[in-house]
Structures are given as structure tokens and as C-alpha cells.
Amino acid sequence: MKQDYFSANNIKHIDYKDVEILRKFLNPNGKIMNHKRTGVTAKNQRALAGAVKNARFLGLLPFVAK
């Protein structure tokens, strides 16, 4: 089983301003990938989804990629 990215890199808080990290968990169309594909724990997946949605709302990430 894959190691959780956030626990492996000792990241305690998933920040919506950290766009480079958030992009790793989006597919080429800009959708959030599921936790089975990313290997992130369910708790971190929920935090990740919230951070991505927050970043989208503030215009840091696109809602859809063209």
C-alpha cells in the first residue's frame, strides 16, 4: 500500500495557498483524484478536497482545465 503523501513529508496542515502540492492531486482535467489513486488517508482526502475547493474559489486553481 502507498504511503500517505502528507504524513511522509511531515505536513500537518493542508494549506489552500500551497498550489504546487494541490496540483499533484488533480488530474489533467482539473478534477480531484480519488484517495485510492493518490494513496492519501480518508481524513487527509477530506482536508485536501476542502483546500482545493477553497483555492478554486479564490482563483488560485482552475475549476476546469482547458
From TrEMBL:
GO terms for cellular component: ribonucleoprotein complex; ribosome. GO terms for biological process: translation. Binds as a heterodimer with protein bS6 to the central domain of the 16S rRNA, where it helps stabilize the platform of the 30S subunit. Gene3D superfamilies: Ribosomal protein S18 (4.10.640.10). Transmembrane segments: none annotated. HAMAP family: Ribosomal_bS18 (MF_00270). NCBIfam families: S18. Part of the 30S ribosomal subunit. Forms a tight heterodimer with protein bS6. Signal peptide: none annotated. Keywords: Ribonucleoprotein, Ribosomal protein, RNA-binding, rRNA-binding. It comes from Candidatus Nomurabacteria bacterium GW2011_GWF1_31_48. Pfam families: Ribosomal_S18. This is Small ribosomal subunit protein bS18. GO terms for molecular function: small ribosomal subunit rRNA binding; structural constituent of ribosome. SUPFAM superfamilies: Ribosomal protein S18 (SSF46911). It comes from the Bacteria. Belongs to the bacterial ribosomal protein bS18 family. The gene is rpsR.
